[in-house]
Amino acid sequence: MTALRKTQIAPDPDAAPFAIRSERASDVVAREALLDACFGENRHLRTCQRLRDGRAPAEGLALSAVRQGWLVGTLRLWHVSAGGVRALMLGPLAVDPSCRELGVGAALMNHALAAAKARGHGAVVLLGDAPYYARFGFSGLKTGELSLPGPFERDRLLGLELREGALDGAWGMIAPAGASVSPTKARRAKVLRSVPRAA
Prior knowledge:
The structure is a single chain. The chain has helices spanning 28-39, 104-118, 130-133, 183-194; strands at 19-22, 62-67, 70-82, 85-90, 94-95, 123-127, 146-147, 157-161, 172-176. It starts with 18 loop residues before the first strand and ends in a 5-residue tail after the last helix. It is α+β, with helices and mostly antiparallel strands. The longest helix is centred in the middle third of the chain and has 15 residues, at 104-118. Helices cover 22% and strands 24% of the residues. Strand 3 and strand 4 (85-90) form a beta hairpin.
């Protein structure tokens, strides 16, 4: 009987165009540059940023998409109180424009929502485009009585229940509820944001 010979096949870099993993400290500069490129340097003035300032993202729910060693996508979830109901706030979600056709955004969303559900979280809220986020199950059905600490467009405030009924009775102001970041870390993040980027 002839033994079968195993052929070594070199990995095709296009077969797995990107990988999703937990965010690392080494991702911070690239993440900040990507967010600036996608949302503008005034993104720190936006309403949802008020829910993130001085806070740490929810444990295990800060994700990076990496392609050939480069950060090409980011998504983070944050603890909030949605009118007294514990929830997560999603955002920002950003993808390098050169990689948008690869499905990075959808993969980050699916991974984040599955991870949040596995960790026992009941609901996620976000401020975003309803047509894009509807495919993940987000809608405005249970966010009509919620508000944000600043100007926002009502039809962009969306929610998703990871556990049925998790947003029942949610009304009032959405407020930060996550762990505070130490002042040293907050200062370091501010300095990193102010470091000029290469042209």
